[in-house]
Design brief:
- By secondary structure, the chain is an all-alpha fold.
- 79% of the residues lie in helices and 0% in strands.
- Helix 3 (32-43) runs antiparallel to helix 4 (53-68).
- The radius of gyration is 22 Å and the shape is elongated.
- It starts with a helix and ends with a helix.
- The model has no long low-confidence stretch (mean pLDDT 88).
C-alpha cells in the first residue's frame, strides 16, 4: 500500500491514513496479527512528527488493536499519544474525542490505575452528557466505568451518585427487564452497600435478582452472583440468617455453572 501510494503521488500522511484504515479492516475481520504488524510498521516512521494527523490515526488504531486484544500495557502509550494530539484535529465535544477519553480511561482501569483513570472517564462522561444526553447507551456505559473507578478508590458517595444516574438512565432507555439495566442495578447495589445504606442495598439486591431471573433465568451464573451481592448487603445489615440463605443459594448455583462449563 505504501509503495503504491507513493508511486501515485500521495503524501506520506495520506499513505498512513489509508494504511491505518486498511489495518482496521484487517482487525475487524479477525486478522489481528497482520493488523498489528502493519500498524507497527507505520508507527515506526512517526517518531519525528507524532502530531501529524496520519501518525495520530496510526497511534490510535494501534492502541485500539492492543486494547481489543486485552493488552492494556501495550495499548496505553499509543492511546496516550493519540490523545495528546487529539485537540489539533478534532473539537473536544465530538464523539471521537469522547470515545478516545473513554477508551484510555478503561485502559488505565485494566492496569489498576484507578486514580489516573478518573479524570479521563469524568471528561468522557461530561462530553457524552453534553453531546448525547445522559439517556444514551454510550453515556451510560461511561457512567458505569466511572462508578467502578470511584468505588475502587473508596469514593463511595461519588460512586453512589453516578451509579444512581446510570440506573435511572438505563431504566428510561431499556426498561426494567434488560441486561444493561441489570448491570446498572448491580453497580448501584454495591455502591449502596459500600456507602453504608444497607437497607436500600437489600431492596436493590432483591430487585436485581428479579430482573436477572426474568432476563437470564433462575439458575444462570449472573443470577447466582446477584444472590451473592444480596448476601453481602444482608450481612452488612446484620441479617445473618438471611445472608447465609442467599450465600448458600449463590454457592449452589455458581458451583453448578462451574461444573457445567
Amino acid at each position: 500500500i505504501s509503495m503504491a501510494g507513493r508511486t501515485a503521488g500521495l503524501s506520506m500522511q495520506q499513505v498512513r491514513l489509508y494504511s491505518a484504515n486498511y489495518a482496521t479492516s484487517l482487525l475487524n475481520g479477525g486478522q489481528t496479527a497482520q493488523a498489528i504488524g502493519l500498524l507497527e510498521d507505520l508507527g515506526s516512521g512517526c517518531a519525528a512528527n507524532p502530531q501529524e494527523d496520519g501518525c495520530r490515526c496510526v497511534h490510535y488504531y494501534l492502541g485500539d488493536a492492543y486494547f481489543r486484544t486485552n493488552q492494556p500495557s501495550q495499548a496505553e502509550p499509543f492511546l496516550r499519544m493519540a490523545l495528546s494530539s487529539q485537540w489539533e484535529h478534532e473539537p473536544i465535544y465530538s464523539g471521537n474525542t469522547m470515545r478516545l477519553y473513554l477508551k484510555y480511561g478503561i485502559c488505565l482501569q485494566r492496569l489498576d490505575r484507578y486514580a489516573d483513570s478518573q479524570p479521563f472517564l469524568e471528561t468522557a462522561l461530561l462530553i457524552g452528557t453534553e453531546l448525547f444526553g445522559i439517556e444514551h447507551p454510550e453515556t451510560l456505559s461511561t457512567a458505569n466505568k466511572l462508578t467502578t473507578t470511584y468505588a475502587r478508590q473508596g469514593k463511595f458517595l461519588d460512586a453512589l451518585r453516578v451509579a444512581r444516574v446510570g440506573l435511572d438512565g438505563n431504566l428510561a432507555i431499556w426498561g426494567r427487564y434488560d441486561e444493561e439495566t441489570a448491570i446498572a442495578y448491580s453497580l448501584y447495589t454495591r455502591a449502596l452497600t459500600s456507602a453504608g445504606r444497607v437497607t436500600e442495598a437489600c431492596d436493590a439486591g432483591s430487585e436485581l435478582i428479579g430482573i436477572l431471573e426474568e432476563t437470564c433465568g433462575v439458575q444462570h451464573w449472573k443470577t447466582g452472583l446477584a444472590h451473592l451481592g444480596l448476601a453481602d448487603a444482608l450481612d452488612a445489615a446484620g441479617r445473618r440468617d438471611e445472608a447465609l440463605r442467599e450465600a448458600t443459594l449463590a454457592f449452589g448455583m455458581l458451583r453448578g455453572n462451574i461444573v457445567a462449563g
